[in-house]
Design a protein that fits this description.
It is built from eleven helices and six strands. By secondary structure, it is an alpha+beta fold. The chain folds into two domains: 7-115, no CATH class; 124-319, no CATH class. Helix 1 runs antiparallel to helix 2. The N and C termini lie far apart (82 Å).
């Protein structure tokens, strides 16, 4: 069992702890991780020099650790080790009572978690400006279809990243029509109607047009809010349209008004690309002209799907035996 007097040396690479009984060995690991070759060589020379001295001693003179020197071989509590390099942050090394080791690691990792997604001081003004623009653009787009929209909380980058990545075009477009009908009927309808998007287009949206953001990259998932609100408004309008179809005795004017309302919302949806995540699109396309062409081709399929919504709902009306 560890005692309060038993010390170990601890350093961190990001939130990854490096623990050892020899200070220079821990420093060497951090220097290698930070790709600071000069410092790594310096620490390795110290280690090798002390090992040579240890081997030169007789066994009767040996004491301390098996390496020939104790865990407190270098005086002082902490020493700066390495600079930030290649995305790795090598922190200082400090001695910690072995009995308190796990508590110390948890404390450092907790502080690291709180810092995730926080930009450096130099980047903060630019990111704050970009965030403000995203918030204003999000509000502008949503208020085209919901003039009463208000943010429940400010937009921001919480530092959390999806394991599956971020989709350039929201996956929800693939099943939107079917879910709109199911919501209206309050049950799965299983109409047996092929989806408006062909299989290759759907697969590309789900599996190809996907990117992953690092924690230090700015990512604001504003599109989830935009697409979600457009879907809510559009489903409500489609529900009103389906209600008119189901009540076939109502006036033609009612049908025209309901149809025009849906068309109006879809026009905004397509014009504003409400189903496209601009952060994901920018990273996925980059400067690649082939990817740009692929994105534009797939977007045209989605635009066509929404624009031709009446064709799909004519089939829905027949399948549900609504009056013509």
């Amino acid at each position: 069992m560890a005692s309060a007097g038993s010390l170990v040396w601890v350093g961190f690479i990001e939130a990854l702890p490096v623990v050892g009984s020899v200070k220079e060995a821990v420093e060497w690991v951090l220097a290698v991780a930070a790709e600071d070759s000069a410092l790594a060589k310096e620490k390795l020379d110290v280690i090798n020099g002390r090992l040579r001295k240890a081997y030169s001693r007789s066994s009767s003179e040996s004491s301390g650790s098996s390496s020939g020197y104790s865990s407190q071989s270098t005086s002082g509590h902490s020493t700066p080790v390495a600079k930030k390099s290649s995305g790795l942050t090598a922190m200082h090394v400090e001695s910690v009572a072995e009995i308190n080791l796990m508590a110390h690691i948890r404390e450092v990792m907790g502080k690291h978690d709180k810092k995730k997604g926080q930009p450096s001081a130099k980047l903060r003004p630019a990111r704050a400006n970009q965030l403000q623009k995203v918030q204003e653009e999000t509000e502008r787009k949503i208020r085209l279809v919901n003039q009463n929209f208000e943010f429940s909380a400010p937009l921001g980058d919480d530092g959390k990243r999806s394991r599956r990545g971020e989709h350039v075009i929201n996956n929800g477009v693939i099943t939107f029509y079917q879910k709109a009908v199911d919501d209206f009927m309050n049950e799965p309808t299983n109409l047996g109607i092929d989806g408006p998007l062909d299989r290759d287009t759907a697969n590309a949206i789900m599996n190809e047009l996907v990117v992953h953001f690092d924690e230090d990259e700015l990512y604001i998932n504003a599109n989830a809010l935009i697409y979600g609100e457009y879907c809510r408004v559009l489903k409500t309008a489609l529900g009103e349209f389906l209600t008119v179809l189901r009540q076939g005795g109502r006036r033609q004017e009612d049908k025209d008004n309901a149809q025009n309302n849906v068309t109006h919302i879809i026009q905004h949806m397509n014009t504003e690309e409400a189903y496209v995540d601009p952060f994901a699109r920018g990273k996925w396309i980059g400067n690649n002209s082939r990817k740009l062409s692929q994105f534009e081709r797939i977007k045209v399929e989605v635009v066509t799907m929404f624009t031709n919504w009446t064709q799909y709902f004519d089939i829905v009306r027949d399948k549900l035996n609504f009056p013509a």
